[in-house]
């Protein structure tokens, strides 16, 4: 359905009202600041630390299994040494005796190697436990910090979320009453300026937030509200101070009801 015909003044008022609503949303989001990102980063860090702890504990289990395996190997080697020792008592010649002696020596070397590996594994356990202790300490600190930041964010959201949602709905309602061409221009200007102000009032002969003086003739044209005029320096849409004052009063009354 085509939008109803409206005057330039009505368009300027609608644009300024939209600016006031969107600026209010910007203020609410500025209050939250970097908190949502901080919470997200902390959650990622906590997840990373938990994953690290899980891996370290799995490593400990693997090392423990390796120690058990080496201990079993030692017991098997000792049993073989005993067996070969008994067999040596019943040998018929030196060749058999020497062959059994070599088997005993081999098993003794196996025991020495296994004991060396057990010692290394135990050193790894000490090292892993130190890392686990440090990681748990850091995890505790990060969890505490995360809980604090989440509390801050939840408190701000509890205060502002309902208002923000209502304002966004109002912004969408106001946009429906403004022609697409103007909405497109408004959004482009908002994206290109630091403070998101696409529509500003004249203050002391200059556009709001600017030091560039607007010629008196242009000021008169703006006050006549007969055409949409933009600031040649910033590209912002300009409205006169009286219109801005009237719309601010109207929108403040609206905000008070949200």
From TrEMBL:
Q: Per its UniProt entry, which superkingdom is the organism in?
A: Bacteria
The UniProt entry's coiled-coil ranges are 39-131
Q: Does the keyword Coiled coil apply?
A: yes
The C4-type zinc ribbon domain sits at: 207-238
Q: Cite the entry's keywords alphabetically.
A: Coiled coil
Keyword Protein transport annotated: no
Please name the InterPro entries in this protein's record: Oxidative_Scav/Glycosyltrans, Zf-RING_7
Q: Which PANTHER family match?
A: PHOSPHOLIPASE C-BETA-2-RELATED (PTHR39082), SCAVENGER RECEPTOR CLASS A MEMBER 3 (PTHR39082:SF1)
Recorded protein name is C4-type zinc ribbon domain-containing protein
Organism of origin is Aquimarina aggregata
